[in-house]
Amino acid sequence: MNARSWKPNLSLRPFVSEFAFRDERLDNAQRYTPLPARSDCFLQFYFKNRYRVVSVSSGAVHLAPRCVLVGPHTQRREDLLCAGHLRMFTIRFSAIGFRALFGIPARLISDYADHADSVLGAALRELEDRLAAATVEQMPVVAEAFLLRELGRRSSIPDGGVAGKLVRSLQVSHGGVPISQIGARHGLSVRRIERTFLEHVGLTPKVFGRLARLKRALALGEMATVPDWADIATLSGYFDQAHMIREFRTLNGATPLQFEAMRRRGTVFPRENSSDVAFVQSHT
Predict the structure, then answer these.
(1) What is the pLDDT of residue 284?
(2) φ/ψ of residue 77, rounded to 5
(3) What does DSSP say about strands 2-6 and 16-33: parallel, antiparallel, or unpaired?
(4) 184: number of Cβ within 10 Å
(5) Which stretches of the chain are assigned E, i.e. beta strand?
(6) What is the pLDDT at residue 59?
(7) Which has the closest alpha carbon to 34: 196, 207, 263, 278?
(8) Which residue ranges form the domains of the chain, and what is each CATH number?
(9) Which residues of 168-180 are buried (b: 16+ CB within 10 A; e: fewer)?
(10) Which of 58, 118, 171, 257 is at 20 to 30 A from 217, Cα to Cα?
């Protein structure tokens, strides 16, 4: 597998967390990846095979668009099934980056994962063509030029700076600081914070905080050979392990043990047919 990542230039760093490229051949195997609820937002371009997207509720499978825009997700709705030759380029935005760069309220892409050009229009198709013709080294340069042009079209972003400060407060604490306390620190009402978050992040601050805790717990669980979920609950800012389990069930549709087992079991398995999905999704 050839995987690379780049940090954007200084002008874009408040809005873009990274550019990433991956070229991988799974040959006669496939990989099942459960996707947790998350606050991430990104654009992904496929130049060979595409992911198959699996509905968590029904098990139905469809092919991902050649260029997909994924907004923040308040629940685990779809998982990924990967096979064949994967060659892709990803632009990962900061929590406030999508709204700042494109001028589109982030609340409009909450729980969205579909054709990017339906939201961003013809300019996105032009970027896709340029990336397809570029070498790996040229891809981040092409993406930066496109995003800097978009940024130059925004004369000002009301509350953009405020939104960035609020996001950092919740990220640093993994969602552990009460919204009223954050408001008092910045001289803002709770209602003002909620409106700002929905506009710039696409989530309420309460949900963003819950997703920050979930992300922390998942990262700690993935790092451990045998996760100690009681310790992870404490380190992630949950009241106790029971609180963490309830949050996992609500946001991911599975307990921490079930989700981690699904993630590890689905790493690579024989490529046969779509019935394999039911096996990997099984919690038992």
Answers:
(1) 38
(2) -110, -40
(3) antiparallel
(4) 12
(5) 2-6, 16-33, 41-46, 52-55, 61-63, 67-70, 78-93, 113-115, 269-270
(6) 87
(7) 263
(8) 2-152 (2.60.120.10)
(9) ebbbebbbebebe
(10) 58
